[in-house]
Structure formats: structure tokens, C-alpha cells
Write a structure and sequence with these properties.
five-stranded parallel beta sheet; Rossmann fold; 135 residues; 5 helices; single chain; alpha/beta
Length: 135
């Protein structure tokens, strides 16, 4: 079964890079939706269901922290897995976000392999690695 993903980042280039990575990853990805900030993401989520959100933290209008707060205060969205992809690379920041229920944290810049590995580790059952072979 495919999974729909919402990518939230103010950089169109970063959203495109993440989407391309997901589509060639071998993971069971359905639709990739995009938003340039947390406010746009919340509007999208009023009419669409997704299985995962990948979000930046530092964005105009509504940043990733505010998006997380809004998700957690909404009973229909509070269980939605969220992975943060940010330039804020401090260990303390990653711990704080983990305590807020974030499923994973990836620092920019990152490689496609790092993103795919994080998704496989944080979201079990998202598809087998097509490069792996059975014994």
C-alpha cells in the first residue's frame, strides 16, 4: 500500500530534491504534496490525508515548531508521523523535538541515502530496500 507524503519547506529546490529522493527510493510512495510553510500545510491537511509529514523548522508565516503545535492540538492529526529536516544541527534541538513526538530528525545538508535510511528506521513497514537480496 502506498503512502502519501506532505513536504513542508520554504525552499522549492529542497522540496523538489526531497520529492525526487522519495520517488526513486524504492519506498511505497503514493502522492507527494508540497507546502512552503506550516500555514499552507494546515490548509492542505483540511482536505487531504497524508501518512507522513517532512518539515523544515525555519520558514516564514508559520515555522515548523508552530506546525507541530497545531498538529498536536488537533485530534485528527496528532498521531501523524513527522520528520524534521533542518539546518539546526544541535543534539539538544533534536532531543527537544523528540520529546515533542517527532518521529525523526535529519540535518541539512543530507544525502538521499540518509533520508531513505531515516524513513526506513522511523517508519517500519514502508517497503523493502530494492537493493537488498534475500539469502
Amino acid at each position: 500500500m502506498t503512502k502519501d507524503v506532505l513536504i513542508v519547506d520554504d525552499s522549492a529546490l529542497m522540496r523538489s530534491f526531497i520529492q525526487r529522493t522519495l520517488l526513486v527510493s524504492g519506498l511505497e510512495i503514493g502522492h507527494c504534496l508540497e507546502a512552503s510553510n506550516g500555514a499552507e500545510a494546515l490548509v492542505l491537511l483540511q482536505n487531504r490525508q497524508v501518512d507522513l509529514i517532512l518539515t523544515d523548522l525555519n520558514m516564514p508565516v508559520m515555522d515548523g515548531e508552530e506546525l507541530l503545535e497545531n498538529l498536536h492540538s488537533n485530534s485528527a492529526l496528532c498521531a501523524l508521523p513527522v520528520i524534521v529536516i533542518s539546518t539546526d544541527s544541535t543534539h539538544k534541538r533534536a532531543e527537544q523535538l523528540h520529546l515533542k513526538g517527532v518521529s525523526g530528525y535529519l540535518c541539512k545538508p543530507f544525502t538521499p541515502e540518509q533520508l531513505i535510511g531515516l524513513l526506513r528506521g522511523a517508519l517500519p513497514g514502508w517497503g523493502a530496500d530494492p537493493m537488498e537480496t534475500s539469502p
